Amino acid sequence: RTIMCPPLGTPTEMNYSISDSWSDEELVRFLAERKADDSLPENVLVGMDLTLIHPRDSSPGNIWYLNQSDDQQPYGNGESDIRKAKGGYWKCIDVLRIQTSKSTAGVKFSLEFYEGEAPSGKRTQWLMHEYQVEQNDDANVPQEYKSLCTIFMQGSKKLNTEDELLSLSTNAPNDHLESYLQYLADMEEQNVAVNS
């Protein structure tokens, strides 16, 4: 199921974004507390399969991806450190354990994108930070979202002020929204082709 945060909303529903000032602990808690029917920050897209796109086709800037996929495997060593993607692969380069409380723990994976076939692809400047919840004893229901990711160009300027945050409002021209809508149309076209 692919859904996107609502393009319009009252100011109280859409008045915050995930920013670069959020700590790793805050990001893990955000992921651990999220349910499918919760309102989302304006810079979060839900359900985009990042293995189907090249990072240059992703939404640059302060955009986050919330995923429900059950097929994501934890990174270990060797083959499991690599996740295939369009035009190349993501390679895990760092793992950080994050303890937010006695009952909630998460992990932050840092991944680097390589163009070409593994293991001899060409290193690029694209990076991904992916957060997953490993333990959530406070939750009385299964975790609905499995990961929270952001993709960015290494060394790119981080967006910090509210004025610089990206808006997904349909009232303003937005290449990110158009790119995401094109992605959804392509996915629907693939589903129709498979089912016919």
From TrEMBL:
The keyword Methyltransferase does not apply. The keyword DNA-binding applies. Gene3D superfamilies: NAC domain (2.170.150.80). Residues 14-154 form the NAC domain. It is found in: Nucleus. Coiled coil: none annotated. PROSITE patterns: NAC. InterPro entries: NAC-dom, NAC_dom_sf. GO terms for molecular function: DNA binding. GO terms for cellular component: nucleus. One of its GO terms (biological process) is regulation of DNA-templated transcription. Keywords: DNA-binding, Nucleus, Transcription, Transcription regulation. This is NAC domain-containing protein. It comes from Aegilops tauschii subsp. strangulata.
